[in-house]
Design goal:
Blueprint (H helix, E strand, L loop, with lengths): L2 H23 L10 H16 L6 H8 L7 H17 L1 H27 L2 H12 L2 H6 L6 H18 L3 H15 L9 H11 L5 H17 L8 H13 L6 E3 L2 E3 L8 H9 L2 H16 L5 H18 L15 H21 L3 H8 L6 H10 L13 H7 L13 H10 L5 E5 L5 H7 L8 E3 L8 E5 L7 H9 L4 E5 L2 E8 H16 L1
Parallel strand pairs: 3-4, 3-5
Antiparallel strand pairs: 1-2, 5-7, 6-7
Amino acid sequence: MTKMKKKYIYIGLCIFLLAFISSMLTVVDYGITWDEPIYISYILHQVDWLSSPHPFSESTIENFWRFEPHPPLIKYVMSGGLLLLHKFIGILYACRIPMCLLFSLLITSVYFFSLRYYNIHAAIFSSLSLFLMPRVFAHGHFAAYDIPIALAWFIVTWAFIKGTSSLKWSVFAGLIYGLALLTKENAVFLIIPLLLWGQIYKRKFYARNTLFIFLLSPIVLIALWPRLWYSPFSNLIKFYLYHVKHNPVNVFYLGKTYGAQIAPWHYPFLLLVTTVPPATLLLSIYGIHAYIKKHFKDKILGMVVINILFLLILMSLPIAQKYDGIRLFMPVFPFLAVLAGIGFSELYKRISTFTKTYKFLANGLYILLLPALISLACMHPYQTSYYNMFIGGIKGAHKLGMETTYWGDCITGKTIKFINNNTPKNGRVIFCPVGSFVPRYYKETGLLRKDIEIADINDEDFDYLILLSRQGMFNNKLWKIYKHAQSIYEVSYQGVPFLKIYKKSDICDIMSNMELRAKD
């Protein structure tokens, strides 16, 4: 190994440490998200399964594994953090730390992928641009499935490329595809861009990959998922039918609420264009320009572009649920970062070929990452609400009717402290709109005072309403409160509120006044 190659490995290690340490140190800054209590409850349920009598009998497995909405691999990963760390940092953060690790591995994978097929400048820029995407950075902290499926999708794709020239990598592609299927249900679609790329670029060499994927991945899937040990095919069909019939989730998009009527086809395209830092987005377009300039003959770049287009088109289909910002098409972003790295590398070469002076200027191009870093730091820990300058930032997005927040992470420790300090003894508070498990979980973790009661949005007896700016979940009453009532506490950025807290008396006053106006 040459000295230069060692240097590049050390750079990759530094990038991994940067991502892991920074995400780990900020893991407590984010509020509990909509789904985290649900996923953690499944982990605890499965720990009970292992300690039950006859855990491997069909009846016991049916009892403990029948209600799973997602495959179990990430629960296994989170349970490792739970067992090792829960006594020191609590259950929630113990489950989040492994996600910080997977997020860091994703960043590092993008680095080494770009280094292997392009150069050091593409590697550094692509990995750091992914790390500095505000929404991706935020999701890198949550005990959820979105970053893990992005990592699994990216690694399978890389293995498939290498498998066209190596038997051991073909085998690895088959095994890792099975793990991807165990990560999240949408991994079943990954085979399509892989086969499409193989047919275009490696027609004579990709059949072996396909054979091992169809041979080995089902074995891995069934072997590591107890739900499939008995009646695997019928249980697998039931699992995917559940997701086909998934109840619609409301989203506020361009000033209109969608739910039973799914958001328009352009939702993923507009979210991509408006939630990625501008320099990264523009350089990814320059990367596509480089691809076209090479007459579409760059095989690796072809795989990157095919994956981006496939994922966006898949999300744009009429039957695809569209909500929660970028969360449901997270695998796009590692590939977009690679594309941006290639665009950066091409720009770097163009500038550095003139003179040594221009080469110095070329090194200065890394300053293009600075605006993303500033945005990420200024919005912390509310990066899931980030919008870029192309839509006018969060102010412009708010005016155009884009959803402000969606997953409950804006209920941070500071807000919980305000609630604890101001709610009377045995007081009642309403959290809305938020996952039904979340307020209870704040109490169970000891973050919210034990004597505070959680009231329903339809209850008339309450002290405070904690209203999150998830406009897609608002009814007429909540819209009136949001627009007209005076809050006593607010979390906002650049004048756009993520969360407001109202007294019952102020809500009653505004509703009474509006009723009187309606009568007049």
